[in-house]
UniProtKB/TrEMBL annotation:
InterPro entries: AAA+_ATPase, ABC1_TM_dom, ABC1_TM_sf, ABC_transporter-like_ATP-bd, ABC_transporter-like_CS, P-loop_NTPase, Type_1_exporter. It comes from Microbacterium hydrocarbonoxydans. Keywords: ATP-binding, Cell membrane, Membrane, Nucleotide-binding, Transmembrane, Transmembrane helix, Transport. Residues 18-300 form the ABC transmembrane type-1 domain. Coiled coil: none annotated. This is Putative ABC transporter ATP-binding protein. It is a multi-pass membrane protein. The keyword DNA damage does not apply.
Length: 575
């Protein structure tokens, strides 16, 4: 999977990578040439007392060194451009993929895990691309080229290379093999920390209301400690690896000086040659160390690439037809025909045998006890989930055969827990339609009974909204969400218990304004309060995921025991 992702996303930057190869090749050749120049400087210049030769060779070495530095800088720049661009493209594709997921896939992966995959995991792949591009040529050239040059320089001492290099590779293999499962565990534990952190931030009010700060702190501490333990194990392996490499390198250098000194003393090897051989030994070891560093990065990047690939390869249950219907025969009509829905892994359906219709401009209310399936039912209209049996029809077209954008464009959804984005009141309302004028925003707020409190805010439509709308009350958040749906100008408005935070007076005024100002819009209303639904054209009663009644308020009082019980239980509150 790692190779597949790197090839897929780096191929776009092939010319940058060609530049990396060219300049890294030049940098590596310069590095390999410098010890030879140093050998000549010592043997032909210093040993012979030739000052002119020392100056000429020294200046040439300086020129080669500057060229090596410039080539290395350019190669690193090209590698960074390619790696950062690939990382950006991967994040964009993961975001686009997740945006097309249904609620089923989001729940399957988990929000915290999806965030980790699009941040930390992509970063690991990006870092490998960056380091791999810069070391891909340098490491093998230094190692292989260094071995060749060392043998050419002094073949009699080459047996030291045949001993030290395999020892380094064995040490690297043993340590890296222990890192692979730790890296996999690390990514899962990062998922867990993100999940706990997200839960605590989202549910901070609940945590404080139940005085659970200590327990939540303990949960986070436990997850955080798990990461620390794994990170410490990985760190200890890193700490062990490089001292082992340096030990092998230093022992090899000492051996070179020892055995080389014997040859120098015997007159068979010149001092410059011995220095050059030691430099090549250092370059060989550096090449092996760089290769080992790459090998250490690959396991973690491979785990991360696998996790990213799982998201990119996941097939959404919300399939998009290639030639989906864009123009609906009967705009605004909604119909459920024998609808059944079962959550993945559930033993029994949460909805079964649901059949009813809402004609354009009608108001259909859905009531029932908690867990009856009301929210699940209305979630099928905009395809947050797809039915597992029967069909949902919007505008006379099965939603699974409709063009998704056209379907969503025809529906305005106000969810059970309205969410506002960081920005202003205006930017949140224009989330429904970007080209909406200020007059249209104020009109939508007036219908949603939100004009008064927005006018009282310091900057009106330009007043700031915190993430999630935490700087406004629950009722204000609901009214802003309703106004946003109205600005969208849909043919169908779906209210999923969207009046629950409103007092009875505001609730009544809002419903009257909706019916008066938007008579042509079909309204599907999920509600707990009977007073919210009494004037609906039709009321659907759910119990245990099945339809146990349908009709007007008066009809259901006579024919549906479940509805009558709901009304009687609220008489003291809403009647």
């Amino acid at each position: 999977m790692l190779g597949k992702i790197l090839v897929r996303y780096l191929s776009k930057y092939r010319w940058l990578l060609v530049g990396v190869l060219v300049f890294q090749f030049a940098s590596a050749l310069a590095s390999l040439y410098l010890p030879t120049l140093n050998k000549d400087l010592i043997d032909k210049g210093v040993a012979q007392g030739d000052t002119d030769y020392i100056w000429r060779t020294g200046l040439f070495m300086l020129f080669v060194s500057l060229g090596q530095i410039v080539a290395s800088i350019i190669a690193t720049y090209f590698a960074a451009r390619a790696a950062m661009g690939a990382g950006r493209d991967i994040r964009a594709d993961v975001f686009a993929k997740v945006s097309g997921f249904s609620e089923r896939e989001v729940s399957q992966f988990g929000a915290g895990s999806l965030i980790t995959r699009n941040t930390n995991d992509v970063q690991q792949v990006q870092m490998l691309a960056m380091m791999g591009a810069t070391m891909f040529v340098t490491a093998p050239l230094l190692a292989i080229g260094g071995i060749i040059m060392a043998v050419i320089t002094n073949a009699s001492l080459s047996w030291l290379i045949a001993v030290s290099v395999p020892v380094m590779l064995i040490v690297a293999l043993l340590i890296i093999s222990r890192m692979v499962p730790l890296f996999r565990s690390m990514q899962k534990k990062i998922d867990n920390v993100n999940r706990i952190m997200r839960e605590q931030l989202t549910g901070v009010r609940v945590v404080r209301a139940f005085v659970r700060e200590d327990i939540e702190e303990e949960r986070f501490r436990g997850a955080n400690t798990d990461i620390m333990v794994v990170g410490r194990k990985i760190g200890s392996l890193f700490v062990l690896l490089f001292p082992m490499f340096m030990l092998i390198l230093n022992v090899t250098v000492v051996a070179v000086i020892w055995f080389g000194g014997i040859e120098v003393n015997a007159g068979t090897v010149e001092v410059g040659t011995l220095f050059a051989f030691m430099q090549y030994i250092g370059q060989i070891m550096m090449g092996v160390i760089m290769s080992s560093f790459m090998a250490m990065m690959i396991p973690r990047a491979a785990v991360s690439a696998e996790r990213v690939g799982e998201v990119l390869d996941a097939e959404s249950t919300m399939t998009r037809p290639e030639n989906g219907v864009t123009a609906f025969p009967t705009p605004g009509a909604v119909a459920f025909d024998g609808v059944e829905f079962t959550y993945p892994g559930a033993e029994s359906p949460v909805l079964s045998g649901i059949s009813f219709a809402a004609q354009p401009g009608e108001t259909v209310a859905i009531v029932g006890s908690t867990g009856a399936g009301k929210t699940t039912l209305v979630s099928l209209i905009p395809r947050l989930f797809d039915v597992t049996g029967g069909g949902v029809f919007v505008g006379g077209t099965d939603v699974r055969e409709a063009d998704v954008e056209s379907l969503w464009d025809s529906i305005g959804l106000v969810p059970q827990r309205p969410f506002l984005f960081t920005g202003t009141v205006a930017s949140n309302l224009r989330y429904g339609r970007e080209d909406a004028t200020d007059e249209e925003l104020w009109h939508a707020l007036e219908i949603a009974q939100g004009r008064d409190f927005v006018e009282e805010m310091p900057d009106g439509l330009d007043s700031r909204i915190a993430q999630g709308g935490t700087n406004v009350s629950g009722g204000q958040r609901q009214r802003l969400a309703i106004a946003r749906a109205i600005v969208h100008q849909p043919q169908i408005l779906v209210f999923d218990d969207s009046f629950s935070a409103l007092d009875l007076t505001t609730d009544a005024r809002l419903r009257q304004a909706l019916w008066r100002e938007l008579p042509h819009v079909t309204k599907i209303v999920v509600a707990q309060r009977v007073s919210t639904v009494t004037d609906a054209d039709r009321i659907v009663v759910l119990e245990g995921g099945t339809m146990v009644g349908v009709g007007t308020h008066e009809e259901l009082l006579e024919t549906s025991e479940t509805y009558r019980e709901i009304v009687e239980s609220q008489l003291g509150v809403d009647a």
